[in-house]
Amino acid sequence: MILRSSYLEEIRPFINSPQIKIITGIRRSGKSTILRLLKEEFLTNGVKQEQILAINFESFAYSELLKASKLYQFVKSEIKTQQKYYLLLDEIQEVEDWEKVVNSFLVDFDVDIYLTGSNSHLLSSELATFLAGRFVEINIYTLSYKEYINFRNHYFSEEQNKENLFLNYLRKGGFPVIHTANYPEESAYKVVYDIYSSVILRDTVQRYKIRDVELLERVIKYAFDNIGNTFSGKNVADYFKSQQRKMDVNTVYNYLNALEGAYILYRVPRYDVKGKEILKTQEKYYASDISIIYATMGNRDRMISGILENIVFLELKRRGYKVYIGKLDRSEIDFVAEKQGDKIYIQVAYKLENEETIQREFGNLLTINDQFPKYVVTMDEFWKGSIEGVKHLYLTDFLLLDNLY
């Protein structure tokens, strides 16, 4: 297994703490691997094999434990000493009344609990109800560009030039399974589409009891077709009305909410840079991995600006930032990212093709009167430098920065 060190570093301060560690993210993003890496780390640090109970609830081997009472009895029967036990429970949302049994584990036993789950709404709402203040959430994303390079170096011996390496990532995205073999694009998209279909069925349609699956998929495709564009529920409803499909605004938002819960989409609100307040309208949506867009929509070269924004957005999320779309009078800042009181501002463009483009991309950032870092990130290698402190970076250089400050 390849060490995904940033996530392990995020989890380590909470090992042996009373908080439940809940690891969330879209299916096949690597949550189960994180649990296996944790198990290896526990064993290396002297924890005995019998002190670790690792259960994957998607395995038929544990199908009898999908009721809370059965799971409780099983764990109780395995705890045979006064030592601390480590519970690694994978895809916990498959267990009926799981939140009650997890609460009982905390009350009745000396245990350190790690859960994974593939639906944020299910986990956050029910954990908040039963375990308020006693859990910490760690979000797992598909591979970053840096992690993708580590995968390539691990699985393949041949060298690739930088441009080909990034183009492969740009086309195939970051699902770990795609980069354990040399899949051609068509095969990679089939694998991704199967992941996507599983997420739609199990974490969206079944969880939210959605009846009109065809209409749900139309909403998804509308969102994917508008990656990088602001839109509202009313925009979507009006679009469907023009297509002779009736859909009210509340249904649109219910579907978008379900897609967020399953980690297919991320909603990014707008932030008034001058007023320093979050706005409630005209948000943007980005995909959890760009490969899902290609797998469902085909290659869309006209969407390259939105795709590049999506890559930058996910990188900011991986680094722990809260991300907003910046509103500055009548202009827009692609991203305002905040973490622990610090901010960075980012404009993303495909190419700095002419003076007008340069003025637009840099000009928006130059009007912000603070000392926080400001970047223009593009696929243009030939224009180097900065303007009055606003730095221009080639996209891969940005993705590989150790620190954005």
What does it look like?
The protein is α/β, with parallel strands linked by helices and 405 residues long. It folds into two domains: 135 residues, 3-Layer(aba) Sandwich (Rossmann fold); 253 residues, no CATH class. Helices cover 43% and strands 20% of the residues. It contains 15 helices and 13 strands. It has an eight-stranded mixed sheet, sandwiched between helices. It has a five-stranded parallel sheet with strand order 2-3-4-1-5, with helices on both faces. Helix 3 runs parallel beside helix 4, helix 8 packs across helix 12 and helix 10 crosses helix 11. The longest helix is centred in the middle third of the chain and has 24 residues. It is globular, with a radius of gyration of 22 Å. The model has no long low-confidence stretch (mean pLDDT 92).
Key terms for this structure?
single chain; 405 residues; alpha/beta; Rossmann fold; 2 domains; 5-stranded parallel sheet; 13 strands; globular
Uncertain residue ranges: none
**First-residue to last-residue Cα separation:** 31 Å
Tally of separate helices: 15
Q: Helicity, in percent?
A: 40-55%
The chain-level structural class is alpha/beta
In the sheet with the most strands, the strands line up as 7-6-8-9-10-11-13-12
H/E element order: HEHEHEHEHEHHHHHHEEHHEEEHEEEH
- Count every beta strand, where a strand is a DSSP E run of 2 or more residues: 13
Rg (CA only): 22 Å
Described by strand count, sense and barrel closure, the largest sheet is: 8 strands, mixed
Number of domains: 2
Which word captures the global form? globular
Strand % is 15-25%
Overall pLDDT score: 92
